[in-house]
Amino acid sequence: MRIGEILSAKPDHGVVTISPEAGVRELIALLAEHNIGALIVSTDGTRIEGIVSERDVVRHLHSDGTVINNVVAAIMTEGVETCAPDDDLDTVMATMTARRFRHVPVLDGDRLVGIISIGDVVKHKIGQLEFERDQLDSYLHQS
Ligand code: AMP
C-alpha cells in the first residue's frame, strides 16, 4: 500500500501549519481546535521549517513551566523526516517505530500535500486485517 492511497482515503487531508514566530499558546489552541497531535511549522505554509507536537509542549513544560510564553521555534523539532506519496506504508511505519514519532509529513516534490499519523496507519492496518479475516471466513464457509 502506498502513502498516496492512505492520504486519498482521509476525509480531510489538509495540513494545519503554524509560523515559527507564533506563540506556544496559539499552538495549543490550534491542536485543540483541530483535534490533532502535531502541526507543521512553516512561515509561508508550504516550506517545512520544523514540526511541533503535543509531546514537545509537555516535555518543555516539564523542564520550564514558563515555556507557554515562548514561541513555537523554541520547542519545535528541525530536520523533519518526510515521505512521498509513492512511498510504501510499511517503510514509513518502520521509520515511525524506529524514530519514535507519530507524524510524517508527505511531500510531492517540494509541495506539502498531507500528513500521515500513527492513527491513519493503525486505521488502515485494522481495515486490512478485517478484510483478510472476512476472506478466510468466506473461504471456510464455502468449503
Ligand atoms: P510525536 O510522536 O509525533 O508526537 O513526536 C515525538 C517527537 O518527535 C517530537 O519531539 C516531535 O517534534 C518529533 N517529530 C514528530 N514527527 C517528526 C518527524 N516527521 N520528523 C522529525 N521529528 C518529528
Automatic annotation (TrEMBL):
Residues 9-67, 76-131 form the CBS domain. Coiled coil: none annotated. Pfam families: CBS. CDD domains: CBS_pair_bac_euk. InterPro entries: CBS_dom, CBS_dom_sf, CBSX3_CBS_dom, Diverse_CBS-Domain. Keywords: CBS domain. Signal peptide: none annotated. SUPFAM superfamilies: CBS-domain pair. It comes from the Bacteria. PANTHER family: CBS DOMAIN-CONTAINING PROTEIN, CBS DOMAIN-CONTAINING PROTEIN CBSX3, MITOCHONDRIAL. This is CBS domain-containing protein. The lineage of its organism: Bacteria, Bacillati, Actinomycetota, Actinomycetes, Propionibacteriales.
